[in-house]
Design goal:
Number of strands: 6
Helix content: over 70%
Order of helices and strands: HHHHHHHHHHHHHHHHHHEHEEHHEHEEH
Structural class: mainly alpha
Number of domains: 3
Strand content: under 5%
CATH topology of the largest domain: Na+/H+ antiporter like fold
Length: 563
């Protein structure tokens, strides 16, 4: 009995330990992301750096054993990311820009494949004195170089609320180029196996495996999306919609892993079908899912950083890392630019797309591990170490470059929703800083004169020091004018209602909206700490301000399409 109790205590301690480490990872990631954000660096870099500090490359708090135990969580996070990315791929966009996107996809994927294959093939041949081995490595590295990490890239797009032709193209490319990378990798692994004499299955595998993994994933996504769309049409409760959506993502990921097809592609297909077959309902669904993703994404990127082990770096590894980065960067730049030019893409896509294609993570590391299984020994070990190192570099350098390209393309902040706008805008930006003011000792005839010259419905009443006293409405004046015969004897102080609620200029529009709704108000005076009037805002003015701002951002995004 004592032995069983001992085992149970150890299991409980292990569970507590993992929960404790998850708490550290989440809290540390949020702090790190915020610090990097203050330095004008995308938050995702902070998450990864914190993970690196917690992992075996740093303090060793998060061990490889724990990372292995948490692998299902990583799969879940990738599935959510794939689902959200798929939700951005709408049929009308593909009908209009599909040919353009496929051209860019092919060019930006094939160019780094060729560049990296040649650089490592030739450079490795000089280093190893074995061109068969070096070109085998080159082909495998080249296939991996064609992939782009959708998680890191889309996190930057989400953080900076981007919208426009460059954002649309980035979403499409990162959603599709993993499939191209997988196809290139399977073909390259077969050719590499023939070159070094370790592949007895021939080139037939090169054509069977990618079709199975890609089309199997697509079929899983479509089948489950058909079920989910029927469920979404039936239910309206937010809780149920969220539960069904996340449950479907989990099921898709689990099924894809069970039958060995591309999990990320299956999740993306799910998102694509849902967003196109239930366009109205899917907006609510994706908004609900997005609301629960921040802690999931933080933990995911912290664990990505913790997984990177950079301690086993030999001189030959640095050489291959340099060749891989040079080939990938030059290939992405050349391929993206060439594809954008021949597809006649907007100017911003031609100039800046390449800078958004550098981050690599899940698919790159996964393919390197797969290569280590196909080619045990030196080739496999070298690939895992090199891709781990280059992944770290691309994860640190990639997000700032993506942010740079989006800033240059002037697409940052164009995808702001009404909620985003009211949360980030100060009252001082929306209020009327010079409203028509009524003084407390002003006669009725003077009040009427001001009414005739302005279109306001509500007027603040102040004393001669501009201290707020109350509010007069046009309706109240109309009633008094009709009922009273003593109009000439009335002063503003006699006609006003006491201003029960006021706001300060540096508070947010969200606070102002809460006041309007909570107290059923139509106007709110804006004052300082001494109750001195600084401005005035009516509810109708606030609604007009928000609508106008949203339309302006939409127009800016539309203008970018024509450049």
């Amino acid at each position: 009995m004592g032995f069983v109790e001992s085992i149970l205590e150890r299991v409980q301690l292990l569970h507590l330990n993992i929960l404790f480490l998850l708490g550290i990872a989440l809290f540390g990631g949020i702090i790190g992301g915020r610090l990097f954000q203050k330095m004008k660096i995308p938050q995702v870099v902070g998450y990864i750096i914190i993970g690196l500090c917690l992992g075996e490359s740093g303090l060793g708090i998060v061990s490889q054993e724990i990372i292995t135990r948490l692998q299902p969580f990583n799969y879940f996070a990738l599935g959510i990311i794939g689902f959200m990315v798929g939700g951005e791929l709408k049929a009308q966009v593909f009908r209009k820009y599909g040919k353009q996107m496929m051209t860019i996809l092919f060019c930006e994927g094939i160019a780094p494949f060729i560049f990296v294959s040649l650089l490592i093939g030739l450079g490795g041949g000089i280093l190893f004195h074995d061109f068969r081995l070096s070109f085998s490595l080159g082909l495998l590295f080249g296939a991996i170089a064609s992939a782009t990490d959708p998680a890191t890239t889309t996190e930057v797009l989400r953080e900076y609320k981007t919208r426009g032709p460059l954002t649309r193209t980035i979403f499409s490319i990162v959603a599709l180029d993993d499939g191209l990378a997988l196809l290139l990798f399977v073909i390259s692994s077969s050719v590499a196996g023939v070159l070094i004499g370790s592949n007895n299955e021939g080139l037939l595998k090169a054509f069977i495996v990618p079709f199975y993994e890609i089309f199997g994933a697509v079929l899983i996504g479509i089948f489950n999306a058909a079920i989910l769309t029927k469920v979404l049409r039936k239910y309206k409760e937010e809780g149920r919609l969220l539960a069904f959506s996340i449950g479907t993502v989990l099921f898709v990921c689990g099924l894809a892993l069970a039958i060995h097809v591309d999990m990320l592609l299956a999740a993306m297909t799910l998102g694509v079908v849902v967003t196109n077959f239930t366009p109205r309902k899917s907006k609510d669904v994706f908004k609900l899912v997005e609301g629960v993703t921040p802690p999931i994404f933080v933990l995911f990127f912290v664990l990505v950083g913790a997984k990177l082990n950079l301690r086993h770096m030999a001189p030959v590894t640095f050489f291959l890392v340099g060749l891989y980065l040079l080939g990938t960067a030059s290939g992405k730049v050349f391929g993206s630019r060439f594809g954008a030019v021949i597809s006649r893409s907007p100017k911003s896509v031609k100039k800046y797309l390449a800078y958004s294609m550098f981050p690599q993570a899940g698919i790159a590391i996964g393919l390197s591990i797969l290569a280590a299984q196909y080619f045990p020994g030196n080739i496999g070990n070298i690939m895992v170490i090199v891709i781990t190192a280059t992944t770290f570099i691309s994860q640190v350098v990639g997000p700032p470059l993506t942010k740079f390209s989006l800033n240059k393309a002037k697409e940052v902040g164009l995808n702001i929703t009404e909620d985003d706008l009211v949360d980030t805008t100060k009252v001082s930006e929306a209020m009327d800083a010079n409203p028509p003011v009524l003084f407390n000792d002003m006669h009725f005839s003077d009040i009427l004169s001001i009414f005739s010259k302005t279109n306001n419905l509500y007027y603040p009443v102040v004393d001669r020091d501009k201290k707020l006293l109350g509010i007069i409405t046009v309706d109240s004046i109309r009633n008094i004018f009709m009922e009273s015969g003593l109009n000439d004897l009335l002063l503003a102080v006699d006609l006003m209602e006491t201003a029960r609620i006021s706001a300060e200029a540096d508070s947010s529009l969200a606070t102002l909206q809460d006041l309007f709704n909570s107290y059923n108000l139509e106007c709110i005076p804006i004052v300082d700490s001494q109750k001195i009037l600084k401005g005035f805002i009516e509810k109708r003015m606030l609604n007009r301000f928000i609508s106008t701002k949203i339309l302006e951002l939409q127009r800016q995004a539309d203008v970018l399409e024509s450049i």
